[in-house]
Amino acid sequence: MLSITCNSLEFGRTSLDFVACGCSSNDHFSVRNCSKGVLRNVDGGCKARKSLCHRREIGRCRVFSTKTPEAFLNGITTGPPPVIELTKELIKLPTVSDLFEVVAHDLHTLNKNLQSIVGAENPVLMSAAEQIFGAGGKRMRPALTFLVSRATAEISGLKDLTKEHRRLAEIIEMIHTASLIHDDVLDESDMRRGKKTVHQLYGTRIAVLAGDFMFAQSSWYLANLENLEVIKLISQVIKDFASGEIKQASSLFDCGVDLDEYLIKSHYKTASLIAASTKGAAIFSGVDADIVEQMYQYGKNLGLSFQVVDDILDFTQSAEQLGKPAGSDLAKGNLTAPVIFALEKETKLRDIIESEFSETGSLEEAIDIIKKCGGIERAQDLARKKAVEAVRNLQCLPSSSFKLALEQMAKFNLERIK
Ligand code: IPE
Ligand code: IPE
Ligand code: MG
Ligand code: MG
């Protein structure tokens, strides 16, 4: 768990290469009421500085990484032109439960198991877990796990899902839920899945502990699967979550953030887990490495498309529609795809963002600029491009109702922003 608080800024390791938050050293950031301190020693003596920013009575820290974007995502914005015109096929699409109908029975069993595997050791953690599991959620990641499991099981002649497939789906949803609990603490969000968030109900301490507990519990179940490749895959995902949250926290209100960095962050926060869900499912079906790789790429492209759509919806939907606060990404300085595209067009936007919306009405003005200068449309194009790539990754699968549902999932996601 990445814990960013004003009183005790900790990253748990020194190798992340952080520099001070820039309250005073970065001229283009105007931050009021800053104080500085020294980060407590970590890993036996290596000190890093910390800076504390207090904005609008909310304690907040910003740290900056000096690392450059990783090479593995290089070229993510390039590639051959789409082979499928998705927009033409979006006329009548099923609902999410229609899509998952072919694995409805698997999802039903998963829902029953989830509550029990969270563990009954601590009643408070149990209640916290119940709050978020009981609030619903689309169960998209386990559904994708089941769909790929069944689509690939057909290839290797498996008659049914194995217990490893099922346990993987449970682990994945547990990790997702843990990441949401922590994400809501970091984003200071009070609503999730239409209900109060865990930290809103039980306080930040319980929310951090409940998230940690779920990460730990999922690791235990993961280890018991006794498949080293999957253990490495999922461990990387848990690390990626922290990296994604760190990246986001360290670039708030930073208008220098470019599309590649945004995609890397989105990979860490979202696509990594979805890619691991689909790849892990293929591994447990025992299919060839090239199919396993295509399933990873499918999950990654779908995950990126999904996060871009989520970021667009933050601008276009109400809190009621979202089941969580709307419009808060920009207000909190999280500059997502629509903003990054708009910044390329409209220089005035930079000044407004860098003033951290200190003037009344400036947030609304920024949103207006983003909408008027085509930021949303370009983000939609990006989401479409990633969805097209995801669908292309499915070409290696034989025709089946499961493959069809996987294709429709990519299109359904786009339907949300039509
Ligand atoms: C929310 O994921 C977090 C993002 C990656 C944007 P979901 O939209 O899948 O959340 P639930 O599980 O349905 O609530
Ligand atoms: C995705 O990012 C969250 C995680 C995968 C942890 P967001 O911060 O955009 O998710 P929402 O909008 O809060 O659901
Ligand atoms: Mg969030
Ligand atoms: Mg969001």
Secondary-structure map:
Elements: E1 18-19, E2 34-38, E3 49-55, E4 58-61, E5 64-65, H1 96-99, H2 104-118, H3 123-134, H4 140-156, H5 163-186, E6 191-192, E7 195-196, H6 198-202, H7 204-223, H8 228-249, H9 259-285, H10 289-316, H11 319-322, H12 328-331, H13 337-345, H14 347-354, H15 362-372, H16 375-393, H17 401-415
Antiparallel strand pairs: 1-5, 2-3, 3-4, 6-7
Helix pairs in contact: 2-5, 3-7, 4-5, 4-9, 4-17, 5-7, 5-8, 5-9, 7-8, 8-9, 9-10, 10-16, 10-17, 13-14, 13-16, 16-17
Keywords: Isoprene biosynthesis, Magnesium, Metal-binding, Transferase
GO cellular component, one term: chloroplast
GO molecular function, one term: prenyltransferase activity
Overview of this structure, please?
It comes from Dorcoceras hygrometricum. This is Solanesyl diphosphate synthase 1. It holds the Pfam family polyprenyl_synt. Keywords: Isoprene biosynthesis, Magnesium, Metal-binding, Transferase. InterPro entries: Isoprenoid_synthase_dom_sf, Polyprenyl_synt, Polyprenyl_synt_CS. This protein is 58% helix and 6% strand. The chain has one domain (96-416): Orthogonal Bundle (Farnesyl Diphosphate Synthase). A hairpin with a 2-residue loop joins β6 and β7. α2 crosses α5 (163-186), α4 (140-156) packs antiparallel against α17 (401-415) and α5 (163-186) packs antiparallel against α7. The protein has a three-stranded antiparallel β-sheet with strand order 2-3-4, with no helix packed on it. A two-stranded antiparallel sheet has the order 1-5. Strands 6-7 form a two-stranded antiparallel ribbon. The chain is mainly alpha-helical and 418 residues long. Bound molecules: 3-methylbut-3-enyl trihydrogen diphosphate (2 copies) and magnesium ion (2 copies). Residues 310-311, 314 line the site of one magnesium ion (MG).
